[in-house]
Every structure is written in C-alpha cells, then in structure tokens.
Amino acid sequence: MLKRISILGLVIWCLFIILTISSDIVPPSLLGTETTDRPMSNGDEVNSLISELGKMDVTSDAFWVIVRQIESKVKADAINKVREGLKSSDIKIRLGCARIVYQAGLRDESVKHILSILLIPVIDKEIFFTAAELLGNLVCSDRDTEAVNRIDLAKSVVAILDVTLDAYRRLSLAKLWYDLERSSLAVKEVKEIANLKDSQIKIAAALVLAGMKEFEKSTEILNQVSLDPTPSGRLAKALLEVKTLQDAYFRKETSKPDAVDYRVLDEVLKLIREKYVDPSAYKEKELITAAAKGIAGTLDAYSEYQDEEQKRRALESIAGKYGGIGAHVSMRDNYLTIERPMYGQPAYKAGLRTLDRITEIEGESTFRKDLDELVKRLKGDPGTDVKIKVFRRGWQLEREFVISRAIINVQSAKYEILPGNIGYLLITSFSSDTAKEVKQSLDEMNKQNIKALIVDVRRNPGGLLDVVNRIVDFFIDGGKTIVSIRERNQIVEEYRTKDDDKIDISTYVIIDEGSASASEIFAGVLQDYKKATLIGNTTYGKGSVQRPFDLESTEKKTILKLTIAAYYLPSGRSIHKKDKKSEGGVAPDIKITPSERDPGKESEFTKLLDSGELDKYYEKYYDKNKVLFSSLAEDDGEDYERYPDFEQWYQGLKVRLEPDEVRQALREHIRRKLADDRGKEFLVDIQSDLVLQRTIIEVCRSEGVKINPATIPVYKRFAHKFDKEKENSAK
C-alpha cells in the first residue's frame, strides 16, 4: 500500500510540474480583486472580464483564471456577448472566448475560430502555440467523442501544416495532429524536426516526443535538460520520472510466470560467445540480424526486418531506377541467363540477346550460384565497368564483354493500339514514375481516338499507395473516396480524387491471382464506382498497409517494415485474405481462367530449344522471309503449313511433340528473336492469350464500340469462342 501511495504521489508531482510549464504560478493575492470579486450585473461583469483578457498574457495562469470565471457566469442571455468577443481585433480575447463558446456547447463555432487563428500568417509565437494546445485540449478532453469530427479536424490541421514553414509552428501543429488521431505520420514529422540543428527546437521536439511516449530519440536530450532549473528542465525531469515508473511497471509485468523475459536474447548470445565450437563460423551482427528478421517475420506475411542490402533493393524497386547493365535475368540450367535484355540499355547495346548465358562475372563462375548475389554483382555505380563471359547457342566458345553500367529506368507502364482502335495499357508495377508514364500513355492513345481501353495488371505485385491514388484519379470524378486506411479499426486517413478531368471511354481491367496490393486497389475502386469491367481471376488478397521505419539503432541503415493498418475500398469492403482458407481479393465481373500449360510438354519445348534446331531454322529462313516472319509472330493462324518447309524440317527433329506443338515452340522463338532484332518487345500475344481474347470480345460488343470481331482477321478465329459463356451468364 505504501508503495502504491508513493508512486501515486510521484505521478501527481509530475503532473503538477507539467501544468506549471510555460507560465508562472500566480498567487491569488496578485490576481487583484478587480477581476474576481466585483459585484456587477451578469452582462456587464462578463463584458468587463472579457476586456481584461486583452491586457494579459495568454500563457499566464491569471488569463485562464478569468476565462474560467467568465465560463461560470455565462448564462443563455450572456453567451452572445462572448460570441461578440470572437470578432474582436485582439487575438487574445478571441482565443479566450473560443474556449468559453466551446464549453457552452457551440463546438463547431469554437473550432472554426481557433483554426482561423492558426491560419494567421503573422502572429505571436506564444499565441500560436497556445491556440494549438487549446484546440487539442478541448477536443481530446471532450467526453462526447462524436461532437467534433476528429478526422476532418485532423485533415484541416494537416492542411495548415503543409503550408507552414516555421519549425516551431510545425512542431506545435504536429503535436496537435498526434493528439487528434495518434497518427504515426505526426510522430515522423516531430522526429524530422528533432533532427534540426537549432538547439532550442531540438529541446522542444524532444519534450513533444516524450509526451508521445517516443523516448528512444528524446531520452538523451531529456537527461541533459532535466538538470536545468527552468520550466523545460522541470518538464524533462517529470517526463523521465514517468518513464522510470513505466519501465518499473513493465519489469514487474515481465516477472510474471507467463511473461517474456527479454534477457533470454542476451543469455543466448553470451553462451554462443563463450561455448560455441567454432567462433569463426558466425558474426554477431549476423546473429542479431537473424533474430530481428525472425521476430518481424512471425507477425504476418508482410512485416519484415530489412538489412542494408534488402533496404537498398527495396528503394531501387520503389524508385524504378538502379545502376546496372539493364537485363531481365534468371537461372536456367544452373547458369545465369538473360531472359530479355532491356532494349536501348547497356547490355543490349553491347550485343547481349535473349537466352544468352552469362557464365562468368569478373572471373567468377555463375554456375549454381545464388541469383540475388549474381544480380548484386552485375549492379553498381553508373559509369563503372563489369567484365562478363557469355555463351550463346551456335558459338564454339564463350566470348568476353566489358559493359559500362548506367542508370537503368525500369518502365512500368506501356501501351499499344490493338486492331479495331482499342487501347491496351500494361502496368507492371506502381513505382515512382508509373503515374507519369500512365498519363503519357493515355494522352498518346487519346490522340489516336481509341474507342475503348484495356488495362492489364496481371502479375502486378503492387507498389506505392500514393501512385495508384494518382492513377485512379485519371478515371474517377474529383472528391470521391479512393481508399481509407484504418489503424486498429479506426479510420485515420482517407484518400480522395482531386481532378475532374477523367477518362470517359469504356474501360476493362484484366486481373489474376498475381495482381496484389496497389493493383487490387486500382481494380477494386474502378469496380466499386462501376467505371470498369473486371475480367480474369480473383486477385491475390493483400489489403494491409506496411510502413518502413528507419531504425535509429542501426543509424537508419536498416528498416522494420511493419504492418500498421488495413485499407478499405470505397464500398467499405476489405479484400485482405488472412490465410489460404479465407476469402479475399477482388473478384472479377467476368471470370475466365487461362488453360494451364502441360509440364511434360514444357519439358519437351526446353529440349527442342536446347537442341539448337529452332535457332537453325530461324537463321536459315529469316532473311528471305522477314515480312512473313513478322506476320507469323503476330498471328500465324495456328497453321504450321504457313511456315516455309515446315513438314520437311519437322521430320528431321527428334522430339516427342506433335507438329502443331512444334509450331507453338517455333512461333515463341521467332517472337523472341524478332524482339531482339527490332529492339522492341511484344506487349501482347492475342493469338494465345485466352483472357485477353475474352476481353477483346467484350470490348467489341460493348455499346461504345460495336465492332463485329469476325470482320477483323486477328479476331476472327475467336469471334464466337465465348458465345456459350455469354449465354450462360445472361441466364
């Protein structure tokens, strides 16, 4: 009992110290009887007290004593006198009256006037701080939690913050923002202010962080300031005492039988240092990294601890830029293989082509090496050289290349005009430049007066939330909700469209199981507003939000990417799939599943490719049949007789494939070779893409297009392929 009393006493003392900060305690004898005990009529006395406010300092206790006196005297007939005070030219009077009006129940009017004070460009610093603190105190202490819309109020505060340059003002606004909705972005803002060189702002930011229970970055400054016999010093000391109490309580809780004792990690490391048989087999830094990854990885599928290399790769992915040679690579037959060079980039300019095998990098073999490590060695600072050895089918020996690295811009949005003047837009990710690339593609297609638009986000893993929001804005009227972010079941942030200039043609979005995160937001929002028809398969089902936190303990070299919220589409639905058994994702309006490729057949295709016979055929017939080969690459009519001397060539092959199956393999190879020769990839394969075919048929038959697909040669073969599905869906 005595221990509890002593703790309670300490807390009371801490609160007492906090309440005295920024003002001196004014003894009642110094307040003067003129402002406290004059016998007057109620209205006259209220007027007199209000006028007194203009003579006083808003940071003094005396000022707020008078405000409380007015509150106690205000009746229904006197509230209008206080409301008149809101129009005063004296900001101090307006501020005091705003509190009285709020307490009288006129909350919206009070909040509006305090916000107007915060918008004044030139205002005394102390008055600004007091206004921000008063607004937070009034709203956050209000027992009627629905009386003021805290979300909208927080948005107004953030809007003021966005146009405020003064660090002290920004600090005050960030604190108010945090008080209103406990936003982690507000904490981030204060931490950035704490990094400024000004010693006074660093102290102020440290005190605010401590009030947010963010002691990691503030403790050092608090310890220094707590020795000062000043209001800030007393507050710092009080906050440190509170932290001590919290830590003591936490230690008490962790001493319970079922609590976690974090000393176990120290003990494990100690035993490894003292007893492990081979000290050279590990580095302690790597053990700590492994522990951090294990802790984060057990939370969910998306939270993770990223070491320095992973952080670098993540930042490159977000930026869509890196230093390297410019090639898509994979491991084939245990060697690093170019799946496709990026056309126009260093690897392609140096002569590297699709399916070239990189056997050595800087003298070291790539055989059976880790793909990530090999990619890391190919990347590097722009302007530096990398020496590699390459083997290509048809060469007797490997050849050496020296390639100068450059900044590689990974284009994430590309377009093509399909027959019938149908626009096709492929979005492979939502990275930093994607919105700009999408806008450019849409502008170019609009110049050609496309009749409809197909947007393909299959296998798109997602990306940046603000980027997909900007792209959605191209399609949806201004002022509409795109997505809401909720932390622990509370809406804390809502994104809305801004621009009324939108795409106004029939739009179709192709999705599949690989469409995740930002891709699902894009598809789901357009579906909710009935701005697009979704075709394909249900999306992946990732509806959680991760935020990267730079770790101070590693000097911000590593990151904890933590799931901090869930997002919800405009209809209020969550698409998050918690496990394999639960439902999730965005379901298509028209479901169609592409036929799966036969693994056995794929193995035979690989054997045929490795045999070199496809290369020999291409080299023998291409020069005399360039126009024909270009036509076959687009559409060969599924007729192998269109290929020169096909039957004779087929008879000489030693494969367990039917002629039509060999035709498929040959056409795929011709498309690879032609893409390399012309330096431009094929975005679509209408002939073999079943989902795209169904989408094209839906587009052709739509009200805004009305094209008979049978009249377009490349569409003719599948013009009636989906008639039965159409009839069934109509029923």
Query: Which geometry do the CA atoms define?
Result: globular
Mean pLDDT: 87
| Strand coverage percent | 5-15%
Main beta sheet strand tally, sense and closure = 6 strands, antiparallel
What would CATH call the homologous superfamily of the domain at 413-591? 2-enoyl-CoA Hydratase, Chain A, domain 1
Question: How many H/I helices?
Answer: 30
Please name the CATH architecture of the domain at 413-591.
Alpha-Beta Complex
Stretches with pLDDT under 50, minimum 5 residues: 1-40
Protein architecture, described:
- Among the domains are: 13-148; 321-409, Pdz3 Domain, CATH 2.30.42.10; 413-591, 2-enoyl-CoA Hydratase, Chain A, domain 1 (Alpha-Beta Complex), CATH 3.90.226.10; 599-678, no CATH class.
- The protein is of the alpha+beta class and 731 residues long.
- It has 30 helices and 19 strands.
Give a nutshell description of this structure:
With 731 residues, this protein is an alpha+beta fold.
Topology:
Elements: H1 2-19, H2 28-31, H3 42-53, H4 61-73, H5 79-85, H6 91-103, H7 107-118, H8 125-140, H9 150-162, H10 167-181, H11 184-194, H12 199-211, H13 219-225, H14 231-254, H15 263-275, H16 284-297, E1 304-306, H17 308-319, E2 321-324, E3 327-332, E4 335-341, H18 346-349, E5 357-361, E6 364-365, H19 371-378, E7 385-391, E8 399-404, E9 406-409, E10 413-418, E11 422-427, H20 434-447, E12 452-456, H21 465-472, E13 481-487, E14 490-496, E15 506-511, H22 518-528, E16 533-536, E17 544-550, E18 559-568, E19 590-591, H23 599-611, H24 613-621, H25 626-634, H26 646-651, H27 659-678, H28 690-700, H29 713-716, H30 723-730
Parallel strand pairs: 11-12, 12-15, 15-16, 16-19
Antiparallel strand pairs: 1-18, 2-9, 3-4, 4-5, 5-6, 5-7, 7-8, 10-11, 13-14, 13-18, 17-18
Helix pairs in contact: 1-14, 3-4, 4-6, 5-6, 6-7, 6-8, 7-8, 8-10, 9-10, 10-11, 10-12, 11-12, 12-13, 12-14, 13-14, 20-21, 21-22, 23-27, 25-27
